[in-house]
């Protein structure tokens, strides 16, 4: 569990008020339906397709989406929502809320259509399918973006099968959707809704966007209650997107490397040495200058990488990345292998090498 809770940052809900509100609401709803005085409401959370189609009791469907009944679903769902806060930082809270709103409506509509078709075709295993309670439409659409947009880094192998840093997140989702046929249909509807939103099917991103006045209203009311300040662990405010976070982390790493080199040089200069010559001092100065040049080139390379580009990695840029990792103390062969494994993402390659160094 610690792997998920520490992904990409340790700053909690910084710039993720919508995620924070979802987790608070999920916890309160689960607690409420297990309080004896409200326990009678639990029977309304199980919805039959006939209630929606023939009795037009759509309110039952909406009500059933508010809360999970089982503890394992609450725990797994909360962990997934907490980890997926990275998308709120990437999209922005307004766009993230619009995404949840649009995919929730689309997911519920797809679920009703699928269950009704199975019921109408008189397929025996699906005659008594109950639409399961729980906010599946808030979780599974995000897996579409998670699959395509978040790179995977192989951590280890089990019986020849690669285990990546995304494996546990997939297993949590599988745990939720494998409870019954109904939960599988809900999860499938959410995945399809996320894919349709991602490709902007029928301009859904524009048609179902939350109005600015609604966003401002929530920001002025609930936004102040759910806002989280900057992380006390970070000396600078953390960027709202993964790209900004990685850029800030690498700049901070560069500063730490330079400071470490400077301390090492001052320590050597304070030590009495026999035969210390002016030539040796010039050599040390040239080494420091070369390191500064490499760091400057790395900043320029990352700036170019953030711009749209076509084609493979420039050999000169690749060599700069390898040399930069060598300057950090890693072996050249290991640096090349890590860069290849991470698709030449310097931050991911550094993480791989640091993990390998820590486990050795």
Automatic annotation (TrEMBL):
Sequence intervals crossing the membrane: 22-41, 62-84, 96-118, 130-148, 168-197
PROSITE patterns (UniProt xref): UBA
Record lineage: Eukaryota, Metazoa, Ecdysozoa, Arthropoda, Crustacea
This protein's name: UBA domain-containing protein
A Pfam entry, by short name: UBA
UBA domain: residues covered: 315-356
Keyword terms: Membrane, Transmembrane, Transmembrane helix
GO terms assigned for molecular function: serine-type endopeptidase activity
